[in-house]
Amino acid sequence: MVGCSQKSVAEILKKHRLTGSVRDFAIPCRPRVTTKRQDNLLVRKCKKDRFKTATQIKAEVLSEYSIKLSTSTVQRRLRGAGLFGRKPRKKPRLTTKHKRDRLSFARSHKNWNTEEWARVVFSDESRFLLYTNDGRAYIRRMKGEEISERCLQKTCKFGGGGIMVCGCFCWSGVGLWWKYLGTSRQIPTLIYWKMH
């Protein structure tokens, strides 16, 4: 008739007799084991190196400041600050020279017209490895930091032997792809040979 069991009704009546109310009283929470200052310390440690795990941060805080925390407490504080564990996006490792050369190229060609770009052949090569390091890495990052430099995992093309594949495209369409044994310096010659 009231949509609950006889036992529930009896418990509610008993509570009313004892307390004069049927409301649930708030259960006192366990006090926080960290202060605001310690929370900020954990966040700073994480932001200094995004690849550090909660366990590593916990160990650092213990050895440097004698603050004893559990790994789950560290994880909760970092999540509370918006730093969630995620797999890092990957990008090729670029040196300062690579970045400078790419920026220089972009600036020197920014005013090219369609006719000029139509005469260009773009090529790319990739090395497919027999053995790769498949170890999973996690980082802590905030929303919108997916491609932030400090949140990326740099990749290198090496390890265990493999096969090199090259392809190209231009204004008129996509060219052939081919495998080859050699160095990337031979690619311009290979492209010319394949296209003529």
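^ that was protein a. below is b, sequence first then the tokens
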Amino acid sequence: MEGECVEGDCINGQGTLTFPEGGKYVGGFRNGVPHGKGTLTLPDGFKYEGQLKDGKCHGQGSATLPSGDNYVGSLENDEYHGHGTLTDANGTKYVGHFKNNKRHGKGGMTLIDGTKIVGRWNKSENIGKGVIAFPDGRKYEGQLKDDRPHGQGIMTCPDKKKYV
């Protein structure tokens, strides 16, 4: 990150760095690079608060993206990685594991209509068995694909009738 140190020690301490295109970083530095706890704000609306390592978002933090998406959790080399919560601009919320910015591993997602999905993801796609609870009271347990029932499963209706 190239910019001008306007306050403090931007080499090996705490300081404030401003960027020519706008935006700033306030926080820790090591060897002239953002490192430790800090806040990065960019003119496009991106904001990150949390841990940095060698100039990259790394560790626990929260990020607000220009799209309006919000992420809180573990990051590695500027990517969602580990356990976190991603709420997109339209209100869909995923809580679970991430790998390389994708839903990956166990997690649960709540869609804007109230549908709840619990299962496993691989590169942000459902894989294997899971559970979907629909707002109308129906519940599906079985194979999932693209956040929908797919393949073998059992649909239980509010009246307790089951369909295979």
